[in-house]
Write a structure and sequence with these properties.
Length: about 375
């Protein structure tokens, strides 16, 4: 039989390279495999050196940490003055990004807040979900001082796989260098770089009030997306919310660790799994929020795979498509973003291809183990008021 005119001879078919996948986990970082230390520290004719060399990541494979132990968390938002005198004094500018999530604040210097002011910060982050502070000196503080500041809000988390500045494993570095193609590589196998998640929800006590501050940023692009998972819960019908109460899901760090191994990164602590309620209650506001994310949530306890997959897909889509309860934060020099990891999800966007560096540092205080309170049949907003 003669070959079909459009048929390509087998000898001319290129071998297909099958990319590594780790379930639903989507890797946004390149890690140690592509980090160019010399270029980052010195730059070259076309590319400047990093602004904050002291924050450049290192990956030491010989550093290991034991499993995390439980601790008693103190929720400082419970002690806050609800009139926010430290955050909204005369002359402070406030702009809400959306009705439910996101507030930009100018005229407050975070580094000099008293403990009472930090209490207000924790409460406002719980209420507004994400706060953007402009013109901050946080990145210029000694790293030890920045960590001491963050430790007020909880025990500082050490990430099990990410790079960190030398001597400061509590800093989680988000870094994409001037020669980093991780975004383009990800798009060779995925249609989007967006990866909605809450930070390290696989831990027994995931983070609460969280800090992320910019060190280098592209001229345009690299925004961070946030979603209000309390409002996502409120948008569901009463019958559906009631059905979700009592369900628990497994959160896993195994896929993240496997991805790190594939990128010649490190495993500083063996990966863990934890079981958390699908609906989480915030200890200061009483708000209930969806506590699932496609990066780390794996299955619903007691459900068969098809049942679990169907319900989780609905919840993931509900969160991802909820543009009317999301906010987009545009980074600018000297910005610090504070959010409450218990009632939000977020994602970086790797949408620029200019070769410009994106470099941030995260301080990640842990909070209480997630817990659920009984279904009430009515919503509670961030101010603790039944809507």
């Amino acid at each position: 039989m003669a070959p079909i005119a459009t048929q390509t001879p087998l000898s001319q078919v290129e071998a297909v390279v099958v990319p590594e996948h780790f379930g639903n986990y989507k890797e946004q970082a390149a890690g140690a495999k592509t980090f160019n230390k010399k270029l980052e520290e010195e730059g070259d004719v076309d590319r400047p050196r990093a602004n904050y060399i002291n924050y450049l990541p290192e990956w030491d494979p010989d550093v290991k940490y034991p499993p995390l132990e439980s601790f008693e968390h103190t929720e400082h938002a419970l002690d806050a003055d609800k009139t926010f005198p430290s955050l909204f004094a005369e002359g402070v500018k406030r702009e809400d990004l959306t009705a439910t999530i996101g507030t930009v604040i100018e005229g407050v210097q975070l580094s000099i807040l008293s403990n009472a002011g930090k209490d207000e910060l924790a409460l406002l982050a719980a209420q507004r979900k994400v706060l953007v502070f402009r013109d901050q000196d946080f990145a210029d503080l000694p790293i030890e001082q920045a960590l001491q500041y963050g430790a007020y809000f909880g025990r500082l988390h050490i990430h099990p796989t990410s790079g960190a500045p030398k001597g400061h494993p509590e800093i989680h570095v988000v870094h994409r260098g001037t020669d980093d193609r991780s975004g383009e590589i990800l798009l060779e196998t995925r249609t989007s770089t967006v990866a909605w998640h809450g930070d390290v929800t696989y831990e027994k006590q995931p983070p609460g009030t969280t800090f992320l501050y910019i060190l280098d940023t592209p001229t345009t692009g690299g925004d961070t997306l946030f979603v209000d998972q309390a409002e996502a819960y409120n948008r569901l019908s009463p019958a559906f919310r009631e059905r979700l109460h009592g369900l628990k899901a497994v959160h896993s760090g195994i896929e993240q660790a496997d991805s790190a191994k594939s990128r010649d990164s490190i495993i500083r602590r063996e990966p863990v799994t934890s079981v958390h309620p699908l609906i989480r209650t915030h200890p200061a506001t009483g708000e209930k929020a969806l506590f699932v994310n496609p990066q780390f949530t794996r299955h619903i306890v007691g459900y068969k795979k098809e049942e679990s997959d169907a319900l989780l897909k609905f919840l993931y889509d509900h969160i991802a498509f909820g543009a009317d309860f999301q906010a987009r934060v545009k980074w600018a020099k000297n910005s610090v973003v504070v959010w409450d990891n218990r009632v939000t999800g977020h994602s970086a966007t790797l949408d620029w291809a200019t070769g410009q560096r994106r470099h941030l540092a995260r301080i990640t205080p842990q909070a209480e183990a997630p817990y659920e309170t009984p279904y009430e049949g009515k919503e509670v907003n961030g101010n603790g008021v039944h809507a």
